[in-house]
Amino acid sequence: MMGLAGIPLGLEFTFLDPSPDACAGAVGSLIQADFSDTDAFRRLAGSVDVATFDFENVPESSARAVQEIKPVYPSPQALGACQDRLHEKNLLSSLEIAVPAYHPVSSRTDLLEGLDKFAYPVVLKTRRLGYDGKGQAIIRDQEDLERAWQKLGDHDLIVEEYVPFEQECSLIGVRGIDGETRFWLLTRNLHVDGILTLSLAGGFDDALQAAAEDIMRRLLDHFSYVGVLTLEFFVLEGQLLVNEIAPRVHNSGHWTIDGAQTSQFENHLRAITGMPLGGTSALCEALMFNWIGELPERDRLLAIPGVHWHDYGKAARPGRKIGHATLTAGTLFELAANARLVAAVAGGKFPVLLNSIF
Amino acid sequence: MMGLAGIPLGLEFTFLDPSPDACAGAVGSLIQADFSDTDAFRRLAGSVDVATFDFENVPESSARAVQEIKPVYPSPQALGACQDRLHEKNLLSSLEIAVPAYHPVSSRTDLLEGLDKFAYPVVLKTRRLGYDGKGQAIIRDQEDLERAWQKLGDHDLIVEEYVPFEQECSLIGVRGIDGETRFWLLTRNLHVDGILTLSLAGGFDDALQAAAEDIMRRLLDHFSYVGVLTLEFFVLEGQLLVNEIAPRVHNSGHWTIDGAQTSQFENHLRAITGMPLGGTSALCEALMFNWIGELPERDRLLAIPGVHWHDYGKAARPGRKIGHATLTAGTLFELAANARLVAAVAGGKFPVLLNSIF
Q1: Strands (E), B54-118
Q2: Distance separating alpha carbons of residues A28 and A115, to the nearest angstrom
Q3: Residue A28 with chain B: CB contacts under 8 Å
Q4: CA-CA distance, B10 to B8, in Å (whole number)?
Q5: What is the b/e burial string over A176-192, where b = at least 16 CB atoms within 10 angstroms of the residue's CB?
Q6: Percent of chain B clearing pLDDT 90 (strictly above)
Q7: What separation in angstroms does the CA of A196 have from each of A232, A265, A268, A326, B346?
Q8: pLDDT, tens digit, for every residue of B116-146?
Q9: Cα B288 to the center of its chain, rounded Å
Q10: What is the mean pLDDT of residues A155-167?
Q11: Considering A139, A161, A183, which residue would you say is the last residue of a domain?
């Protein structure tokens, strides 16, 4: 999606990916290498003017290897800060940004201490390499605790209070090399088994949008950040708690391709190449459906008004995100009506999930 | 642009182009061959499920060579019918579609006969291989006549009455394999030296839109057409005269990428692959600026709200279309104001041309 957004801007791409079949190969040249292969990253650096990443588990050391040769945006420092949940939360706290209460866990004793502080339920998470709900467990009782400790006890961990959130949402913003910032609409996110499944653009009041932008601005300025940044929030009693920072374009911003004046991908590229940023306002109502594990029947979906199809060209595999569709509409009524048609075709969790938002 | 539209649909592309540097190579594999190389077209046919063209001077024989192996949409017959201005006008007349009065010219005597019929000024055109104003001459007097005859007299020609049109516009429509049709807004076109320079989406009354759609429907049905078709019209005293048929996506429809629910490229691909068609309604006001011969200063333009940049990755050459920008806006006032900013940066003919529309 980054490549597709960049070609009209006159950009050319070299991608680095561990898979020889990486879908990005359709829109640029491909260096097949592990993310830890610093030599390959140096080769990448030699073939480009500027480098970026769309996956936050690229090792900071790999990003630094590139940075010795060519600019890397966002900075390896920002990347590194978001790779460890404990550091991330310490940073947020130091910037006076609200987060769920947390406690570092290096031993079973630490975990019991955390439980003393927060009481059941709590969430135990690995500090590093978690995504899509991987590397975490909700602990509701002693039995859960034993199971979670067996599964995760070998890692550096963090235990957090469980937030009985009313909603989850994310803010995607972008900061240019010149420090200019732009933000898209807060987007409501619905997860199933820890994996993002639906994202609805907007619908939050102006005060919450402003509060989210204020929080993100503190982070952008802290890092002298360049590129797209994503914050995932819990909404609890009308307040925002930051759940996670993603130093990259984000799945919950895919609706911006079809529903916003400028997509997150285009603005990320504009930012890191020093171009002026594009407008981020929404053109219409937009709801994104993630296709996880398999694609639903494309042609039945394309027959529904306002469906925009995004097939990533990836092999189907359980739990893997292999595409999405964004439904756009002029009004929320139309969006809701057509969303029910989409959900009926896509099946699975979608019909029930939709009932929780419309 | 076709490839960029097709990748999210899950399509893969093989392109055939005479140039080894063809920009399409960035989004698919490339067979470098002349458009007359039927062997190469057979190879192309072997590597795809369905074939199309975005240039109407591909020889009909090449399209037929593909058709012996794989489906070609639009049909080689429709392609052929649009390659000869005389056949095209005869067809339109037989379908009772208004065209400028015309007269076939195989000799100087024929030309003088035509002049007797229409009186000065007239337009002399080659029957084949004309585009962007090439292969035609306006004849206003005896001196023009001699010059035009020297330049074009070796070709099969057609002479037409000169139409003192009030405006030029085009309609782009699409017909699916199942016969479903969709149409975008009539688009006003401004040419400089015969080359399209500005296209403004919409602004025509409902009756003219309906009249244009009715004309196109007759042609679509006549050909059992599949894919995108373009009609260029003169508007004279509120009536439409067909100037040209283009059996393909069209420069005057490039605004649909940024300004319509579904672009001409995506709907062309949906049509020829048998997918349902997407909505064609406009999302906003849209004005396209063609970059001819050279690109203006990209970053100064991207700083103007609503500018969408399209660099084709082609080498700059006088008279060559190497990119465009589409300006979008929520209102016509905003569009006009920002269009003046674009014109000021782009310079050339743009400021004066804009004054003729806003």
Answers
A1: 102-105
A2: 50
A3: 26
A4: 5
A5: bbeeebbbbbbbbbbeb
A6: 93
A7: 11, 19, 21, 14, 43
A8: 999 899 999 999 876 666 788 999 999 999 9
A9: 14
A10: 94
A11: A161
Long-range contacts of B186-189 (CB under 8 A, 24+ apart): B186/B212, B187/B252, B187/B253, B187/B255, B188/B357, B189/B232, B189/B252
Rounded CA separation A256/A259 (Å): 5
Does one domain contain both A263 and A200?
yes
Residue A149 CA to residue A145 CA, distance in Å, equals 6
Q: Is residue A270 classed exposed, middle or buried when 0-12, 13-18 and 19+ CB atoms within 10 A define those classes?
A: buried
| Of B22, B60, B62, nearest in space to B44 by CA | B62
Give this complex's ipTM. 0.93
Domain with A120 in it: what CATH number? 3.30.1490.20
Q: What spatial distance separates the first Cα and last Cα of chain A, rounded to whole Å?
A: 29
Structural domain span for residue B156: 101-161
Whether B138 and chain A come into contact, CB under 8 Å, resolves to no
- Amino acid sitting at position A317: R
Of A33, A48, A81, the last residue of a domain is A81
Q: Convert B239-269 to b/e letters by CB count within 10 Å (16 or more is b).
A: ebbbbbbbbbbbbbbbbbbbbbbbbbbbbbb
* E strand spans, B108-204: 122-126, 136-139, 157-161, 167-175, 181-183, 187-192, 195-201
Helix (H) or strand (E) holding B236: strand B227-236
Subunit contact A7:B313, Cβ cutoff 8 A = yes
Binary contact (B299, A9; C-beta < 8 A) = no
**The residue type at B94:** S
Q: Does one domain contain both A128 and A263? A: no
Cβ neighbours of B278 in A, within 8 Å: 302, 307-308
Please tell me the distance in Å from B199's CA to the nearest CA on chain A.
Answer: 19
